[in-house]
Amino acid sequence: MSSIPGVASLSVPGAVDGRAQRKVVPRSSLGGWDVRYRAQDPIATILGQEDIRDPALLGLRHGRMGASPWTYYRGAAAVMAADLAQRPHSGIPVQLCGDAHVLNFGLWNTPERSLAFDLRDFDETLPGPFEWDVKRFLTSLVVLARENGLRNSATRKAVRAGYQGYRQWIGKYATWPELDIWYDLVRSERFATYAKQADDTERILERRAAKRTSRAAFDKMTWVVDGRRQIVEKPPYRTHALTDYAGQLTKIIRQYQASVRDDLRELLGHFDVVDLAQQVVGVGSVGMRVFLMLAEERRTGDPLFLQIKQAGPSVYEPYLGVSAYAQHGERVVNGQRLIQSATDSFVGWTAVGTGEEHHEYYVRQFRDGKVIPDTTEITPQLARYAHACGHVLARAHARSGDVAAIDDYLGNGDQVADALTEFAFAYDEQNAHDHGQLAQAIEDGRVDAVPGWP
């Protein structure tokens, strides 16, 4: 309540008693998985996401998901969302990342040009129970470890380390003032302490980030054709097949410019759009319309790459309710701002078209120092990396939820760690089985697929 008579409180109502929730949803119930809980056909769930996607790209999506259990897991957030919804949950809400698998953590430049480690994908973000993010994260460690031949003992160590990183920092954040949580940033030097050779790691990360900029992309990804600067094609993953979208893209760019803050609109006014190309990105995003826009500053020719990405409903909406935002691009951007400590200044959203041709988008910088460690780099020190990811996930949840309630619910013993480890290993087996079903459907011709991985 406000202490000033007649003035409304700033507080958010509906705090949850974490200890009381243990009786409502015992922590042991967070563990284990059995296919008998399932209320879906996973292949039907995957195909059911494709009404809003570009039909020409669906074969690529199926081919990528069918490549291995790991690529399947990355593309099957909707399958796991449906499964998580069948089991009891803590009732303690946060802003879910929604797809917190281990490769959705990475480094990039903050608006202040500081390299930071954070979550990086928010297409599925929505308010929901905190442990759904934790379960998807911990299970991803098992799936990745299996993919790379890690032994069971090392895999279990990584899962426990991931949970301990989360648990340790939830405990710390529960004692911090809210403003300190809000401004906390995991900078590259802080992230590097999780590696064995912190000094070397920091220098390597900084060098790699320096190569992941609009200027570096300009040198590597563009050329001059008939006197005009163009984005280099890499069919079918990057093409100029934009005939069907030319009118939409003009409206998208105009509406995006109209939607951003005045200061950013002033900055963008110094740039001209030079070229546009259609992209295929990630695994879960394949089939969504994604465009790469190259702009150049009029005075110096300095390049700026922006990515325009289609946004659809979160895979959690059937179970948690529809988003409070009118547009899904707005849902993604505002979820990102809530979860991250420092968000790209260029993010914005827009929507174009009507009926079946209505598509919603969000816009962000392309790359901008983004560094995502390769799985071969992560695997040898998976436990250390998992601990760092757990830290970042805890910070995201502390920013957006009742960190004291989460802290009280988790407690200090091993019960939750044991339960979540049990779940991660059990769901890894389910994921492998589901991947086998999709691979068989592709082999039988029941699901069209384009084989290969770029």
Average of pLDDT: 89
**Count of distinct strands:** 12
- Helical segment count: 19
Shape: globular
Rg = 22 Å
Question: What is the helix content?
Answer: 40-55%
For the largest sheet, list the strands in their spatial order.
Answer: 7-8-9-10-12-11
Poorly predicted runs are none
Main sheet makeup: 6 strands, antiparallel
Termini Cα gap: 56 Å
Report strand %: 5-15%
What is the domain tally?
2
By secondary-structure content and strand pairing, the structural class works out as alpha+beta
In words, what does this structure look like?
- This protein is of the alpha+beta class.
- The chain has 2 domains: 261 residues, no CATH class; 152 residues, no CATH class.
- It is 45% helix and 15% strand.
- β2 and β3 form a beta hairpin.
- α1 crosses α18, α6 crosses α19 and α7 runs parallel beside α17.
- It is globular.
- The model has no long low-confidence stretch (mean pLDDT 89).
Element layout with pairings:
Elements: H1 18-24, H2 42-47, H3 58-65, H4 69-75, H5 77-84, E1 93-96, E2 105-109, E3 115-119, E4 126-129, H6 130-147, H7 152-173, H8 178-183, H9 188-192, H10 198-210, H11 214-221, E5 222-225, E6 228-231, E7 238-239, H12 246-259, H13 262-268, E8 271-279, E9 290-297, E10 303-311, H14 317-320, H15 328-339, E11 348-352, E12 359-365, H16 375-378, H17 382-400, H18 403-410, H19 415-443
Antiparallel strand pairs: 1-4, 2-3, 5-6, 7-8, 8-9, 9-10, 10-12, 11-12
Helix pairs in contact: 1-18, 4-6, 4-19, 6-7, 6-17, 6-19, 7-17, 7-18, 7-19
Protein name: DUF2252 domain-containing protein
Pfam families: DUF2252 (PF10009)
Organism: Gordonia defluvii
